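User: What would this chain look like folded?
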Amino acid sequence: MASVFLSYDHQDEERAAPIISLLKDAGHEAWWDRHIRGGAQYSKEIEQALDQADAVVVLWSKSSVDSAWVRDEAAVGRDRGKLVPVSLDSVKPPIGFRQFQTIDLSRRGNQRDAIDQLLLAIAGGTPVAQPPRPTPKRAPGRSTIVAGTAALLAIAGVTVVAVNPFATAASKTISVAVAPADSSLQSKDLSDDLVAKLGALSVHNGELRLVESGQRSHATFTFQLGGSAELGRSRANLLLLDGSSSTILWSGQYERPTARIGDLRQEIGYSASQVLACALDAYRSRQLASRLQLLKSYLSGCAEAAQSGPAEAAALALTFRHIVEIAPKFAGGWSQLLLAESIIPAPDAKVRHQITADIRQARNLEPDMPAIYAAELSLLSHDDYARSIALVERGLSKNPDSPLLLADRSSLLFSIGRTNDAVLDAKRAVELDPTSPALRGNYIYTLANAGRAEAALDEVKEAERFWPGSSEVERVKYIVNARYGDPGMAAEYMRSSAFQGDPQKGLIYLEARIHPSPANFDRAIQNARAEYSVHPERSVQLMQALGMFGRQNELLAFVTTMPRSLAIEFREILFRPTTRVLWLDPRSLSFAKRIGLLQYWASSGKWPDFCFAPNFPYDCKKEAAKLLA
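Assistant: Here's the prediction, encoded as structure tokens.
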């Protein structure tokens, strides 16, 4: 619930009253005063209301633009970052307020869109000129929007006309065109690259068809891409247009150093694929029909999610929450909300309770939504192996082609020792969504960590062909070489300007690989121990060094004495090639029992891959029976 200060001229009182009703119906506290107008100074009551307001809604009209009082109140809202300007008469705001995008309630035929924009701006607590960045306020539900719509329409006495192109019936086959915005070489080059990326995506999506740019008038959607380069910087502007009306549905701006043009292409390609996926959801459901502003907010959130991570998850969740509160039957909004919530770092009890409530709401709408299973998985304990695997497998039985759930199962399988199956899931996820840098990187890491370094480096070459010049691909290549491949190549990368961080400590490890000797091994291990003593989360580096340099007994002693919670969190490390030597000693099964893995293996009958390795020194089942007796 937001506290709203309404600023208006007394001559507009009759038109202000329906807006007050709308705000109250939407659950906001609305302050206005029909009597206090005039005077050279603010009254204490007005000043207090302005101080307490989350948003200052200013109604610009032919009379209010000349009101010194309204201008003063608007200035307070502007200076405090709370201004939400509304136009009643299509008049220009006074000088000093024209840099803000004004919500136009004067035009006939598009009132509902303006209402949504007003409520989103208030719920976000930001000037309309800025991208919505919501704060945790209560936003209106569907019923309050309907009631508020009727009130606001009384302002102009008009009928709502649907202008959103998504209001029409969706066809089964969806076509997409990519067209350069101009005749420049940069625009054509970027457009050609985007065609290639979306073409790879369409191979695994039977509903999606690419059409030539010359036939864009027949396309469901068109991406229009313009590029430029100057002063060592490459820039791009990407628009998503409705194919029939050329309505702008979404826009994105990108900029990178010209030397990193590969990063620009990758960012454009992945953002476009994610925005397109969200547009398809909206197109199929038609729940955002006649709500063009809400659709634009949704697509902007999807684009932001494509470039964000756990640190931004809470803010993204708020963005999508406003979407579903206004359009509660829109499954795409619920899916994005749950995906954002599922990666919020260390959620507290309040956040977990909210996620549970959101899962319940989403399940009532679409019971087998993949994001529901991802969100449920995030609520399970890290050592609840049986329920975690069962949950994801249930989700995949309903959604066998979900890259999200395949990637989740791949991670889970690797962390319980089933590395071969993990590779298969990671590979399938990339095939279904080839534009995702994260899924492609995960597949390469899974191959390498499963002991297939050569195959992983072959996939790096594939990634370089798909995303040439990508910094992310270069980083993946460095990590694979640092762990299992060419340490000299990894050291070269670490000394380059592309490496972020202090290279000295990492170079100690690589030096021990390049020039193997007991002294270098000791130095690398001592360095890793020192790092772990200060940063316990860096236990990965210490386990890697102990395993790589043949300290099997020290590795076993370390993992059996490390805190249980830490051991559970980083258990995946113990199934990598360098640390897998741990399991050659049957005493390692006592450690597996300590973190609950042994119990899972025995009860499920799903034993880790190392138990079936040729010439393995003991029988896993027999040793487990002794420990579990």
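The longest helix spans residues 261-285. If you want, I can go into more detail on any region.
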